[in-house]
Fold this protein.
Amino acid sequence: MSEFWLISAPGDKENLQALERLNTVTSKSNLSYNTKFAIPDFKVGTLDSLVGLSDELGKLDAFAESLIKRMAQSVVEVLEDSKGKVQENLLANGVDLTSFVTHFEWDMAKYPAKQPLAGVVDTLAKQLAQIEADLKSRTATYSALKTTLENLEKKSMGNLFTRTLSDIVCKEDFVLDSEYLITLLVIVPKPSYSQWQKTYESLSDMVVPRSTKLIAEDGEGGLFTVTLFRKVIDDFKVKAKENKFTVREFYYDETEIKREREEMSRLLSDKKQQYGPLLRWLKVNFSEAFIAWIHIKALRVFVESVLRYGLPVNFQAVLLQPHKKSATKRLREVLNSVFRHLDQVAAASLLDASVEIPGLQLSNQDYFPYVYFHIDLGLLD
């Protein structure tokens, strides 16, 4: 499973023993794989500032998760027919996401733990905001190019009634630069090919004998040329319609056809040129955003643990990876049983402080006696 539970409990002797019991029970029952989750000793500041940071981190957590989902989706869209390669492009520091989470180490160089917590949060927020701004700009350019190209490709994939003909016809199919003659294109249903060959010369006066040629087909019919005098065009169209032959409105314009072909070639070239740089940018910045997201989770555990368990800072964070979806209910029961003794302590702290502790809700459904956060990597699959 690509789901993780990040919890913390006070670091006193009783709770360290509870953590050992948790490891024993979950290991024996094959419920989860547990590892310590190392979090630095940050500068705490005031409890009021921590309450404010708790709210800010909650919003930043949601923003970061949304951003990496959008980036993952952008990778899927850019890869198009190579979607089997998506996971190998969604890495963090060069390793798969599960490995990064289970071997998480705080990056002191990017986010110095000695600076005030508010400064660390601000650095993360600015980094993610810049990545989002760049993502919007880069993907908008690529998407516009891709949409234009797809529209042109669709025009060449329709039936003979609607598709562009610039990639089908050639100059030799038409009588050009004649004052009197013109070549028309007529769509003939397949069952009527024989009828067309027998009757096209007599549909109107002034049709050039033996001037028809089949130049393209689709599943329903064929595209034929026919040459006639310009002054009988209208009469020929009427007679053709009566016989269920459709004259396709098309006049050969070499300049326009050349322009269309050059436009398609240019767009394909532009897309190819943008593909590599965009994919590389997505890979690098997905990694950066994901790493930032897990750092935010670590900060949330720190802040909520201090608010929940008080000062001095003393708690142990643990990362649990449930082995299977069906075991999560049992795993939750084991956690609640092992840490049930924290319930009264936390509730008493809440009443004594007379403040609302973020994440601490006295609801049987939502309340856990320990600090708890969820990480779901399955949403990126």
